[in-house]
Amino acid sequence: MSIAKKKGFRYTSCIMPIKIQSDLPARRILENENIFVMTEMRATAQDIRPLKIAIVNLMPTKIATETQLLRLLGNTPLQVEISLVRMEQHISKNTGEDHLEKFYIGSEELFDRRFDGMIITGAPVEQLPYEQVDYWNELCAIMDYAREKVFCSLYICWGAQAGLYHLYGIPKHLLDKKLFGVFQNKRIMPSDPLLRGFDDIFPIPQSRHTTIDRSNIMEHPELAVLAQSDESGVSIIKSNDNRSVFITGHLEYDTNTLSDEYWRDKNKGLPINVPENYFPGDNPEKLPVSVWRSTAHLFYSNWLNYYVYQETPYTFV
């Protein structure tokens, strides 16, 4: 039985798919991985109300990021309807305009809709002051909208730094060198539903030049640190009202994402260190192995279930 209405409640008893456009490039990749996806045509025949999730995709490699996030959102017992969101005040250099026009909505259309959850991705602009990012004002408007109209928003990497800065005035700090690799994290609040089922120590990939100091977060009693690393610092933060979750790393990354980034910069002659704790024996000539995949699936499943699904009424539109 799918998500249905029964005496005012919704219930599930089987794995549910993500609902996407039938010709989205991610569809074929996910189907080949046995991730259950549902096209719009098939979804219209089902009498259910899926969770509506907006993904504000700020990454230049948009198709890769779409696939990474849809893979994680599509492996839960919930039907999820995805809306991809673009910045109207930014011209993408890496993704064709035809793809953006076909599969994305702009912020103005976003504001006219209601969503159960929202994801704001990272972006390779962390070394710029926030106000110098060409779409900063538009992103601030989206974050304000989400704070009022979305049940829970998930902010990733630079998106997390931007959210903490805009919503709480917490600054970012430039690192002496790029934080690059896979780092172990400790659960600080193991009883929190977001970390339910997590190991005491778990890995998160990182790729950033800036960081958030824990002392700055502790100045805000409305925030809680859920996990942190001795090497990479604070990793998961949430607001006490459960409306915002911030993760400083990239659990959504594929096995080869850090490798591709390393070799891209290496082949361009750019200064880049071998990502830490990633290649076997720290030898970039060897194929990397993912050690964070199960953590990623559990994190996104917990976020969807405990922070979005459990909080959203069936009649929410």
Explain what you see.
- The protein is α/β, with parallel strands linked by helices.
- Helices cover 29% and strands 25% of the residues.
- Strands 3, 4, 5, 6, 7, 8, 9, 10, 11, 12, 13 and 14 form a twelve-stranded mixed beta sheet that branches.
- The longest helix has 16 residues, at 293-308.
- It is globular, with a radius of gyration of 19 Å.
- It starts with a strand and ends in a 9-residue tail after the last helix.
- 41% of the residues are buried.
- The model is unreliable at 1-16 and 41-47 (pLDDT under 50).
Condensed summary:
The chain is α/β, with parallel strands linked by helices and 317 residues long. The chain has helices at 26-32, 40-43, 62-73, 97-103, 107-111, 136-149, 158-168, 214-218, 257-267, 293-308, and strands at 4-6, 9-11, 18-20, 37-39, 51-56, 80-85, 104-105, 117-120, 152-156, 173-187, 201-211, 223-229, 233-239, 244-247.
Which structural category do the helix and sheet elements fall into?
Answer: alpha/beta
Largest sheet: 12 strands, mixed
Task: Report the helical percentage.
Answer: 25-40%
Task: Provide the β-strand percentage band.
Answer: 15-25%
Tally of helical segments: 10
Average pLDDT, all residues: 87
Shape: globular
Radius of gyration from CA coordinates: 19 Å
* Total strand segments: 14
N-to-C terminal Cα separation, in Å?
A: 22 Å
**Quaternary status:** single chain
Secondary-structure element order, N to C: EEEHEHEHEHEHEHEHEEHEEEHH
Unreliable spans: 1-16, 41-47
